[in-house]
Amino acid sequence: MSWVSISAAVMFLVFGVKLLQEAREMDGSEITKEMHSVEAELSEKDAAKSQMAMEAGEPVETEFAVNVDNAEKPVKEDDKTMLASLRNLFSLLLSPVFVETFVLVFLAEWGDRSQLATIALGAAKNVYGVAVGTILGHTCCTGLAVVGGQLLASRISVKKVTFAGGILFIVFAILYGYEAYNMSN
Predict the structure, then answer these.
(1) Considering only CA atoms, which of 151, 123, 117, 153 is closest in space to residue 137?
(2) DSSP letter string, 2-15
(3) 3-class SS at 56?
(4) 75 in helix, strand or coil?
(5) Under a CB-based contact definition with an 8 Å cutoff, are residues 25 and 159 in contact?
(6) Per the confidence metrics, is the pTM higher than 0.70?
(7) Distance CA 71, CA 75 (A)
(8) Residue 126 class from Cβ within 10 Å (0-12 exposed, 13-18 middle, 19+ buried)?
(9) Distance (Å, whole) CA 184 – CA 149
(10) Which of 17, 28, 80, 151 is the one with CA 20 to 30 A from 2?
């Protein structure tokens, strides 16, 4: 029995059931609600940033302020902005969507034929060339999938896409379970 196939089947089943539950709970207006929420949050942050800049006597629309004592040297944004940027970066990297996508892709690719081919190429050819080629190939393939998914979601409701994704994950779970069962016999 292949533990990789069994793990993949369980993972696909869990993600499929989770997507079906999310699709069942959706009412079809998620994109509109999300867009209004994001627009409100962005305008609120812009207003707060402009207000703080005006209170500090800084120009509102520029990234650099001019130092009155020495007009030739621009004064960069303060360290608080850098900390806020780092905080935003880490919140993005540790967001549930990022973690779920990373785990899904990592476990789906683990032991996959493309990974085995990459191992064989890396053993026989230049490791750096194989690494760069693999990274670029997966980046292009995944980028096309993301863009295609975005275009699909703009034409079809999010609820239907989520439901279809859940069904597809369950089909993959069945296929991987069947593969694991046949490998043991």
Answers:
(1) 117
(2) -HHHHHHHHHHHHH
(3) coil
(4) strand
(5) no
(6) no
(7) 10
(8) exposed
(9) 36
(10) 17
Q: Which residues contact 149 (CB under 8 A, 6 or more apart)?
A: 161
Query: Minimal CA–CA distance to 15: which of 173, 154, 125, 127?
Result: 173
> How many residues does this entry show for the chain?
185
What pLDDT, on a 0 to 100 scale, did the predictor assign at position 73? 47
Q: Crossing angle, helix 158-184 and helix 30-55, to 10 degrees?
A: 110
Q: What is the mean pLDDT of residues 20-47?
A: 77
**Residue whose tokens read 């275009």:** 151
d(CA 68, CA 107): 57
Tokens, residue 101: 């996508």
Reply yes or no on whether the pLDDT at 65 is more than 50. Answer: no
E strands, the chain, in order = 65-66, 74-75
